[in-house]
Amino acid sequence: MKKGFALPLAALTLLVAQAVNAAPLRIAADPVPHAEILEYVKTLDPGLDLNITELSNGVNANELLAAGDVDANYFQHLPYLHDQEKALGKTFAVAAAVHIEPLGLYSSKIKTLAALPEGARIAVPNNTTNLSRALLLLQQSGLITLKGAATSLLTPADISANPKKIKIVEIESPQIPRALDDVDAAVINGNYALEAGLVPAKDALALESATNNPYANLLVTTPSLAKDPRILRLAKDLRSPKVAAFIRQHYNGSVIPVVDEQHD
After folding, report:
1. Which of 136, 206, 207, 247 pairs as cysteine with 141 (C-beta 3.0–4.6 A)?
2. What is the pLDDT of residues 53-78, one digit of tens each?
C-alpha cells in the first residue's frame, strides 16, 4: 500500500512546487525609483512574473509582508528594517542590497550652505534611523557637531555644537518636500526628492556620501521565501550589470547601484 501511494504523492508535491514557482511574485515598492527599477527588470526578464504594488503614504510594506499580502518588498535600508522587526515582532530576510539613495539637504530659499541664516529652521525625517542619518549629514556639512558615534542612533539631544543656532523640525519623511517652502532647508530622502522633481546630484546643497554607506535599499522577503526560486531570480536580476547601467543612466548619480560600490 505504501508503494502504491508513493508515486502519486511525489507527483502531487512536484505539481504544487511548480504551481508556486509559476505564481506571480507579489512585491510592494515605493514608486520612485524602486517600482521604476522593477518595471525595467520586467523588460529584461519577462519570464519572471512580477506583480508590483506601488506604496502610497501611510502604507507599511513590512506589515503587508508579515500578513502575507505580498511576497517581498523593495523600499527600505537595513537600519530601518531592524527597527521594523522590533516594532512588529517579526523577522524578515534580506534577499539583495540593490542601490543607495543619498540623503540630501535642499532649500527653495538659499543657493549655498554659507547663505543659511542664523536660527534657520531645517526639516528632518522624524523616524529614528533617518533622523540620525539626517543629523550626520548636517554634521558632514559643517553645520553642527554631534557627541554621539556615527554607529549609534542620534537625536537632536546629541548636538554638542550648533554655531548657527539651527532649529531642527521633525516631519514625516513623505511630507518633507511639501514643507520645503515653510522652512529654510530640509533633509529629504532620495526617493521622495525624486518624486518631488528634485535632482539630488544637482539640486542638493549637500549630499550624503555613498562610500561605505550602510543605507543601501534592499529586496526583503520572509524567511520561508528566502530560497524561493522567484526571489533568487529577482535578486540576481536586480544586481545585474544591466540594471546597474539602467540606474546610472536613468538617475544620473541621484541613485547609485550597490554593485558599483562593491565592484561586483
Report:
1. 206
2. 999 877 999 999 999 999 999 999 99
CB 96 within 8 A of CB 218: yes
How many CA atoms lie within 13 Å of 74's alpha carbon, on the beta-carbon side? 29
Please, what is the Cα angle at 60 between 29 and 170, to 5 degrees? 105
How far apart are the C-alpha atoms of 132 and 136, rounded to whole Å? 6
Question: How do beta strands 25-29 and 72-77 pair?
Answer: parallel
Ordered by where they begin, the domains of the chain are 21-100+226-252 (3.40.190.10), 104-207 (3.40.190.10)
Predicted TM-score of the model (pTM): 0.78
Residues 6+ apart with CB under 8 A from 192: 173, 174, 176, 177
User: What is the rounded distance in angstroms from the CA atom of residue 113 to the CA atom of residue 117?
Assistant: 9
Cell numbers representing residue 236 in the block: 540576481
Burial of 58 (0-12, 13-18, 19+ CB in 10 A): exposed
User: Is residue 34 within 8 Å of residue 218, measured between CB atoms?
Assistant: no
DSSP code per residue over 113-169: GGGPPTT-EEEEE-SHHHHHHHHHHHHHTTS-EESS-TTSPP-GGGEEE-TT-PEEE
Give the per-residue pLDDT at 151: 60
